[in-house]
Amino acid sequence: MTTKSSSLNKVFADLPVTIFEAMSQAARDNNAINLGQGFPDDPGPEDIRRAAADASLNGYNQYPSMMGIPELRQAIATHYGHWHGLKLDPMSEVMVTSGGTEALTSAILAVVQPGDEVVCFQPVYDSYLPIIRQAGGIPRLVRLEPPGWRLNEDMLKSVFNSKTKAVLFNNPLNPSAVVYPREDLELLARYCQEFDVIAICDEVWEHVTFDEHKHIPLITIPGMRDRTIKVGSAGKIFSLTGWKIGFVCAAPPLLRVAAKVHQFLTFTSAPNLQAAVAYGLGKPDEYFLSMRKDLTQSRDRLTKGLESLGFPVLKSQGTYFLTVDLSPLGLNENDAEFCWRIVKDYKVAAIPVSAFYEKDPVTSVVRFCFAKKDETLDTALERLSDAVRGRKR
């Protein structure tokens, strides 16, 4: 049977293979170190993994509540109350999903209707735009630029209007590794309130911040409590990216509709993993602070190594990533060409940040993941030792 391409959903049929999968496949094909896709190379906290194993052997393994097991919903509410001063009703304002991407999809499909405009900031994570378009929404793209990647009045003024239904905001921002300060959040909040816009906030990196940069959830900014859908991810908090346990937090009118979408996407998530995440969220502050300290050391190790090789590194304020701006080097290649060259010739995979732009891309910035063991980073640096030499114009 031959299926006509014209009969398939154009939103998805015309999409290329994601850059993350393409570069990871290139890493496998070239036996390269993968500093492209954002996953650690350690198995994650043993006590949390043991809690999942125990819950699987001795706990309940049938369908849990669609909204998430009660102990996890309570743990999420308690955790955010402690870390952010955000008071949530665990039964009416918290939902568990199968990962952050499903949480975002539930939120987008709950809010966006055909013809609605949705403000998105480039560099933009690759799942946002297809789901907005599947909902019939129209993305309005804002171009952020290095080295600061900051918001400003002119860019918001250019896209917010009477048709704007939602804004999709990632903070800390992947791939540029910025943790947005309060002044940027207050600016965005002002526009959301002026134009009666719902903010869908991808905050999966909320615990991965460095150098005293503090994550401030947009939902805690005055006037945003009832118009924000906050998304979190246990996979990012605990470096267990394969577990796919996400959180949606919102006022009851918003959460009720997001739950109806979730009902027909994945319905529910593995109860043993939920139980383990509930245990993890209750760990003492020292665990989270130690995690940040360890990642800071890895960030600094890769930063120092790249700088010693002549790469201009942009300071990473959060996430598993740091970025390098190639423009001062005078190379005769753009970011994508650079990434394909180093994975083939130097056996190290990275991600071109231009892949996070749909139009008018920044073409000089490359993203590296530093959530790796020291020996992995050191080997990658050794392989890249002459990647710059000989390529200048």
UniProtKB/TrEMBL annotation:
Molecular function terms from GO: kynurenine-oxoglutarate transaminase activity; L-aspartate:2-oxoglutarate aminotransferase activity; pyridoxal phosphate binding
Coiled coil: none
A GO cellular-component term linked to this record: cytoplasm
Superkingdom in the source lineage: Bacteria
EC nos: 2.6.1.1
Domain annotation Aminotransferase class I/classII large: ranges: 32-384
Keywords tagged on the record: Aminotransferase, Pyridoxal phosphate, Transferase
The protein's required cofactors: pyridoxal 5'-phosphate
Keyword Hydrolase: no
Pfam families in the record: Aminotran_1_2
InterPro entries: Aminotransferase_I/II_large, Kynurenine-oxoglutarate_AT, PyrdxlP-dep_Trfase, PyrdxlP-dep_Trfase_major, PyrdxlP-dep_Trfase_small
UniProt catalytic activity: L-aspartate + 2-oxoglutarate = oxaloacetate + L-glutamate
Enzyme's top EC category: transferase
Family that this chain belongs to: Belongs to the class-I pyridoxal-phosphate-dependent aminotransferase family.
Quaternary assembly: Homodimer.
Protein's name according to its UniProt entry: aspartate transaminase
Organism: Bradyrhizobium neotropicale
Lineage, top ranks: Bacteria, Pseudomonadati, Pseudomonadota, Alphaproteobacteria, Hyphomicrobiales
